[in-house]
Amino acid sequence: MTTMPLTQVHPHGYITDKDKYLQRLRRIEGQARGISRMVDEEKYCIDILTQISALTSALQAVGLGLLDDHLKHCVLDAVRMDGPDAEVKIKEASAAIARLVRS
To answer: Where is the signal peptide (predicted)?
Structure first.
């Protein structure tokens, strides 16, 4: 008997908030376009940096939300099933946390 990988058995943890994430990402896209326009229009450096800071914060909020969903859903499900996926999911989560902390 073959088993499907956990990611194929269960939907991703963020699926219940997918619309919320997409809305936030569309807003972030708009912010990025706005920053590009500011550079093109040669706006004041500090104003551009302020917008970059806001964009960075918005991206970090999305990343932390996705990480929280991943821990609560994907990692927790893998640990409950107590198979080889559990260790993989924990390592993936640790690596993702490390990347977020470095950014």
So the answer is: none
Q: What is the pLDDT of residues 69-92, one digit of tens each?
A: 989 888 888 888 887 888 888 999
Within-domain flag for 23: yes
> Which of 52, 54, 66, 53 has the alpha carbon at shortest distance from 97?
66
How many beta carbons lie within 10 A of that of residue 13, not counting itself? 19
Does residue 13 lie within any of the structural domains?
no
Contact present, 63 and 97 (Cβ < 8 Å): no
Domain count of the fold of the chain:
1
Q: How far apart are CA 27 and CA 30, in angstroms?
A: 5
Cα angle, residue 55 at apex, residues 70 and 20 outer, rounded to 5°: 45
pTM: 0.77
Residue identified by tokens 């609560």 is 72
Supply the DSSP symbol for 83.
S
Domain that holds residue 55: 18-102
